[in-house]
Amino acid sequence: MANKKTVVIHAYKYDGQIYRCYETPAIISEDENYIVVDLYRTRINTYKAEADNNYFSKITYPCVWYFFKKEWFNIIVSNKSGRICYYVNVASPYLFEENTIKYIDFDLDFKIADIHHPQLVEVDIKEYAEHAKKYQYPEILQQKIQEVEQRIKDLFARKKFASFSNNPHLSYNRKKIDKKG
Fewer C-beta within 10 Å: the chain N or C terminus? Predict the structure, then answer.
């Protein structure tokens, strides 16, 4: 994309270990409340502490990621063959330093598989329980995560996620968007 600032995104576990790195996504919007990055064609490195080898992947469909300065979640919105999907990560508010967006992932997530037939599905509940124990999440953090879990459910019930799909970078007509960049 022309004239867009590229960054790196680091996702950490609670113990401080980086577990995922997104290489060169572009910032497409920023204000005092959030940063939005374009993930289309972004390479992802996933590090498995318990595995001998890491794995790489690449995003091959229009996708944007909203990071909030005061919210304990972030939202990935993707366009998969014309179907708008959401993935909501319960996570720390982001920190931006050294051209890198950084956040802690708390392993509790939600999916909305199709905005035209919205159903909020809580995923990774088992992983959250395992990691809360493994990383010894303090009680105050677990309470915060439960509050965020309820906030996400409330936002969904009030249909607040739909506004995030109005981003032109979710279009499959990337050539026009990239030229405007």
Answer: C
Distance (Å, whole) CA 142 – CA 79: 32
Question: Which residues lie across from 35 on neighbouring strands?
Answer: 30, 67
What span, in angstroms and rounded, lies between the C-alpha atoms of 99 and 44?
17
Torsion, Cα of 24, 103, 73, 137 (10° steps):
150
147: tokens are 């509050």
Q: Specify the pTM.
A: 0.87
* Residues taking part in catalysis: 20
* Tokens encoding 175: 């050539």
3-state secondary structure of 43: strand
45-99 per-position pLDDT tens digit: 998 765 556 789 999 999 999 999 999 999 999 988 888 889 999 999 999 999 9
In three-state form (DSSP H/G/I as H, E/B as E, the rest C), the secondary structure along 101-169 is: EEEEEEEEEEEECCCCCCCEEEECHHHHHHHHHHCCCCHHHHHHHHHHHHHHHHHHHCCCHHHHHCCHH
**41/58 Cα distance (integer angstroms):** 6
Under a CB-based contact definition with an 8 Å cutoff, are residues 78 and 87 in contact?
Answer: yes
Cα separation values, 130 from 7, 12, 123, Å: 31, 16, 13
